[in-house]
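Support reply, case 0932

Customer input (verbatim):
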Amino acid sequence: MVYMPLGEGFYLETRGARLWVYDSASRRSYSGPTTVFLLHGSPGQASNWKHVAPLLEQRFRVVVYELRGYGRSSKPPRVSLGDYLEDQDAVMEALGVSGGDAVLVGHSFGGLVAQEYAARRRVKALVLVSSLARLEPDLLDRVVWSLPPLLWRRLLFTENPLTRRLYRKVFFSDSTPDEVYEEFVADNKEYLESLPPHVFRYLKYFSGYDASRSAPRIDAPTLIIVGGDDSVTPPAQSRALHGMIRCSTLRVVPGAGHMILYEKPALLAEEIAGFIESPPRCNV
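Our regenerated output:
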């Protein structure tokens, strides 16, 4: 499998699962306690942050871990929101990071986890990248969730003419260079083809998710970033989150789709770093 070249990680055992964790403090020293946690999407892996993490770790301690069910972490039959919140607790405790020093940066499903965590626990700041205000299944979700894997596994989650066209259209802006898309395919082809079918059904347990039940409780400074051409979590979802979170700033990035992590990594890293270093003052 292909993963981000960010040095050696380690496994953390927690609540019946093994989570793969990378901590930039294992090879760098930092003068301050601020720690940036990068949470990938579904069915993502740590390598989704391969361009952004190295830029951020020049200025902050960066922790990237593969969420329960993904990457090199354990893949249980089912997952829950509680699993992901308690896993974040466990990683922070293991690394000695307090909530007041933690910046959670979540992409897509990782954004859902990050915003739900921030609604319940104290964090220094929150960054939501292509996150979700609501999760409603589409036709492909219903196919994957209800039909036998024999009918959809090879068709939707292996490299073939259909997925090459579909992934390019769905996850990337039309203005993104083809070489960026080809890099994404190379990084994720073997990984996606090796995942057990039940992993693709995890989002079933979050069907009907509605951030309006929790996002108004977030009081941490929040940066919301979305690609202007994102068709998976369209800008309307980010605008909805912006309206729910009192202390939030919205940034819509032209010429980027859902995989802004690949499409505009330098811009994304600079937006995140600038926000951490100069957060807005909030009246909460």
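We compared this against your earlier run and they match. Two observations from our side: The longest strand covers residues 17-23. Residues 29 and 61 are 8 Å apart (CA to CA). Please reopen the case if you see a mismatch on your end.
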